[in-house]
Amino acid sequence: MTGNRTLKQRIIQAGIWTIGGHASSQALRLLSNLLMTRLLMPEVFGVMAIAQAFLIGLSLFTDVGLSQNIVRSHRSTETRFVNTVWTLQVLRGAFLCLLCIGLALGLYVLAHLGLFPAGSVYTHPQLPGVLAILSLNTLVTGFESTNLAMASRSLNVRLVTSLELCSQLTALLFMVTWAYFSPSIWALAAGSVVGASTRISLSHLVAPGIRNQFAWDKAAVHEVLDFGKWIFIGSIIGFIVMNGDKFILGSLTSAASLGIFSLAGFLISAIQQVFSKLAGSVAFPTFCEVARTHPEKLQEKYYKIRLPIDVLSLFLAGLLFSAGHIVANILYDHRYADVGHILEIMSICLLEIRYSITGQALLALGHSRIITLLTSIRLPIIIFSIPVAYYSYGIEGAAWVSGGNSLATIPLLLYFAYKHKLLDAKKECMTLPIIIIGYLSGSLASSTYNLMVK
Description:
The protein is an all-alpha fold and 454 residues long.
């Protein structure tokens, strides 16, 4: 119990806030995307995709699961422990900022030495400057209050969601205003920094709890690093897996083509992030609490949380595979006509979403090494298959690899779920027909749309 609310009540409320809040967040992201695609050219999104991939990469290369430690640790009620985690977070942010600036300088020098293929995204003159501006994000983010992690621990998703929406809206207004008067990539870069700064400021001004101060507890540092070592390795591999397609294609194709590929990825990620939010904000804290208090009930809670996620993700996978082009045609103008077909191909990755909850359950049990192992399986698929697929079938081939590589981990996820007494074969199979319903619904929607536009 927390206050007068049971765990079930907190899960329901957290789920409602997560879905509602993230739906609002994705609506704002989509609105921003639609407005900016009308104000800016496709090549801008290709350059921004590479810059953001570099930024995410540097962040994940230093990820030791600081917020996850606060959510799962028994010491999270100790002020000294929490402030030590915050101190590590600040130091990490400063280090990341320096790394990002160094990377921007490196790319500038290498491009001027002619070491990148002519016409590739890496030779774009604005890429180093965009990276330098985005480096401020890492510095600012390091100062985020740990009270947001504590709110997640107690399933207080309303607070976290409200702050995210506020910062996102601020960034949107800033970007659109800048791009309207001066349509350039700098509107996107500066807007990102403004959004991060707003979130961090609100985390200290609004979120209840302790006021973070610098502290150092050797035992806390040891606990953080011991839990986070596999998260660190997994984050590095995960970054390459999630962004390797963009890095590889950045050296093979033009900024405009990468922009088309990235916009299709944006639409897919908008869906993925809804489920990722549920997994991180609802499933993981719930599994941690059940594992601490009633471990014998973990399987039951696991499938209760998974059921609605399975139904929705499988339906969307089938729907988009047959009707993704309709979404793209409605959202974008003729310059982005190829987004729809790439979106349909990439939609196969939604089949794996249901098993991301399995990963959260294993992580709550302390098996971060397993998550690293599963992620590493996808690494050689991305590195070796993307170039071959691109040279053989163009962007379409790369999209098949990008969307389908995650499916390779499903057999092992099922094995580890069985090993740790999470698996129920009947419940695994009962929702699979939903994908057929989604595909048929998409086919009907596609036929109807084609009749209407003729």
